[in-house]
Design goal:
about 625 residues, alpha/beta, six-stranded mixed beta sheet, 16 helices, about 25% helix, elongated, disordered N terminus
Length: about 625
């Protein structure tokens, strides 16, 4: 039958169907959890954000929601377009088990999100807050955070890496790290203990996050890593902590907003002692500039080499019989000197004189070192000072002149040495670091995998990340210079159970920045001029990290050669750093692995959640 001869009611039904389809498209467009409608109008001018340092009362969910509502409204009345509240802000933190928290869990979306949606709609703003979530279909509980925007509920995040307390009632998060498109930019969420694992923030970065909201209940560890996470990933961070004590657990305040370069934009007071608790809410404001979303640190993400990061997916624990079980007591020297460009003999003389000056007679076994670490390209000086067209003339095999010189030192001073050279292999040149044992034998060779802009002009990147065994030191991982901008590298070395990481460097301020956390946050204070990324390697990998850097020259190398330790925040050990401008050999002593500490590499590896790290390999 011809369509022109159909009954009139056919066209009425057809028209109704078309209208219904259009209505459904409009409905789902408006209610998309990615807030798609808003994302088309992304802010291009600076806007104010607020960290709500709110202290909830335990077992008082409904009262906490009402009190939070007032604090959020205060922030919005002061012009904030994004407000972030702490972890578990609607319930308080400590609950013995599922039965204890059962009366206070809420769905997402649910009571709290519906309440706060009234505010976000009224002020055309966004809220992130922590809460205990109940999943209706399974009755599983999660430590979660919700994002609410001008159109209502946007999305949620479930904590991936949990601390022991919530493990008694909350399941591990199972959503990965979603990134939500908003009018303010692309926003992701991490929660507290997540920050002990560089991968969690990195997941947000590789998905394009511009802002990381960070609800926490921290006593130091989680918030101390925030400037490094901002710097590594090139995004803003808005953190919200508590500033009181609950069931003996003291949270230290210091809620802060961090720039994509790791600069502190604003911070609430640090409360180090329970007797100084501040139960009243503190709101801290700062400005975020969307023009800074495109920055050098974020652009560096394009240089990642996911093909090298496969070991991030491994979870050998608790069966890893390759891990060290006995601590090693290590005495080490890290050398810094002003390099003489291209003059191998002059630089060899500097190295030998610094060692002799520091430890005296080579035959004095009492003063023998276990490890000496030198800057990258130790005897030629760094590539920044060399002519690119002469690099091949400086190249040598791994058993060439430089290694013969280092072998003489190793035997004379009864010490292992980590040093750098321009390795020539066939027609290729590499920026290479060597681990030479005290018997003058090569235990390991590493070719830099993340080349600097200077090294790209002459060097071929390496293609392996390895940890090497030295009978006197334990397991040693190697990194070089620019590698420190890529936290995946130290994470892989940690998975491979490095006890020590040695980093020959040539740093003149071209990346990173000095430590900006409140100096009183750490029980054992960081030395003046601490390089934030260098210090974070040690804590992230739970490996003692020895850095060697140059000083001086027209390039202005910044020295600061150092030992960075695994737990200065709570008083286990003390970082030590050399000056910024003097030639010197810094002597340091430490004990590896720390099997009895509250947190160590063994606990780190056991608690990682690699099932969610796949996006880091794409």
């Amino acid at each position: 039958m011809s369509v022109f001869r159909r009954k009139p009611y056919f066209y009425i039904i057809l028209l109704a169907a078309i209208v219904a389809i259009i209505s459904l498209i409009i409905f789902y467009g408006k209610n998309s959890t990615s807030d798609a409608k808003s994302s088309t109008k992304q802010e291009s001018t600076p806007f104010k954000v607020a960290s709500i340092e709110f202290n909830p009362k335990l077992n008082e969910r409904d009262k906490n929601i009402e009190a939070l509502y007032e604090q959020f409204e205060t922030a919005f009345k002061h012009g904030a377009k994004l407000a972030v509240a702490p972890e578990m802000a609607t319930t308080g933190y400590y609950y013995k088990d599922r039965e204890a928290i059962k009366p206070y869990v809420d769905t997402i979306p649910g009571k709290a999100t519906n309440k706060f949606a009234k505010l976000t709609k009224k002020y055309h703003a966004y809220i992130v807050f922590g809460m205990a979530e109940k999943e209706p279909k399974t009755n599983i509980y999660y430590n979660a955070s919700a994002l609410v925007g001008p159109n209502g509920y946007v999305g949620k995040y479930r904590k991936t890496h949990q601390w022991e307390t919530e493990e008694h009632w909350a399941a591990w998060g199972d959503l990965g790290v979603p990134v939500f498109k908003t009018e303010l930019g692309k926003l992701a969420i991490n929660i507290c203990m997540d920050n002990a694992y560089s991968e969690t923030a990195r997941l947000a970065a590789v998905a394009g996050a511009d802002i990381l909201a960070f609800p926490t209940n921290s006593s130091a560890q989680a918030i101390a890593a925030l400037p490094a996470r901002a710097m590594q990933n090139g995004f803003y961070i808005v953190s919200a902590n508590r500033s009181n004590t609950e069931n003996g657990f003291h949270m230290i305040g210091a809620s802060a907003i961090w720039s994509p370069t790791g600069k502190k934009l604003a911070e609430a007071p640090l409360i180090t002692k329970p007797e100084d608790d501040v139960s009243k809410t503190t709101i801290t404001y700062a400005s975020i500039d969307p023009k800074q979303y495109d920055n050098e640190n974020k652009r560096r993400l394009k240089e990642r080499r996911p093909e090298l990061y496969q070991d991030l997916m491994l979870h050998v624990a608790p069966w890893d019989y390759t891990a060290s079980t006995k601590p090693k007591h290590v005495s080490a020297l890290t050398l810094q000197y002003e390099p003489v460009s291209g003059d191998k003999k002059a630089n060899e003389s500097k190295i030998e004189n610094l060692i002799r000056k520091k430890i005296g007679s080579a035959r004095d076994k009492e003063k023998a070192m276990r490890l000496v670490v030198l800057p990258e390209l130790s005897v030629t000086g760094p590539s920044e000072l060399l002519h690119v067209n002469k690099m091949a003339s400086y190249g040598e095999s791994v058993n060439g002149q430089t290694t013969q010189f280092m072998k003489k030192l190793a035997l004379e001073y009864n010490t292992a040495i980590v040093y750098g050279l321009i390795e020539k292999s066939g027609e290729k040149l590499y920026n290479t670091a060597i681990l030479l044992n005290k018997n003058g034998k090569i235990d390991g060779k590493y070719r830099q995998t993340q080349l600097s802009s200077y090294d790209k002009k002459w060097a071929t990147p390496g293609d392996q990340l390895n940890v090497f065994t030295d009978n006197n030191l334990g397991k040693v991982g190697l990194m070089i210079g620019n590698d420190v901008n890529f936290p995946e590298i130290s994470s892989v070395l940690s998975v491979q159970r490095a006890d020590i990481i040695a980093v020959p460097s040539s740093w003149y301020g071209q990346f990173a920045g000095t430590m900006e956390i409140n100096p009183n946050m750490s029980v054992k204070r960081y030395p003046k001029g601490t390089n934030q990324l260098w210090s974070q390697i040690a804590i992230d990998a739970q490996s003692y990290t020895v850095i060697s850097n140059y000083v001086g020259t027209d390039k202005g190398f910044k020295g600061g050669s150092a030992l960075y330790t695994i737990d200065p925040l709570y008083g286990l050990d003390q970082p030590v750093a050399a000056s910024s401008n003097k030639e010197e050999a810094l002597a340091v002593n430490f004990q590896t692995i720390q099997p009895n500490n509250w947190f160590n590499q063994d606990k780190l590896i056991n608690s990682r959640q690699p099932a969610y790290f796949k996006p880091l390999l794409k």
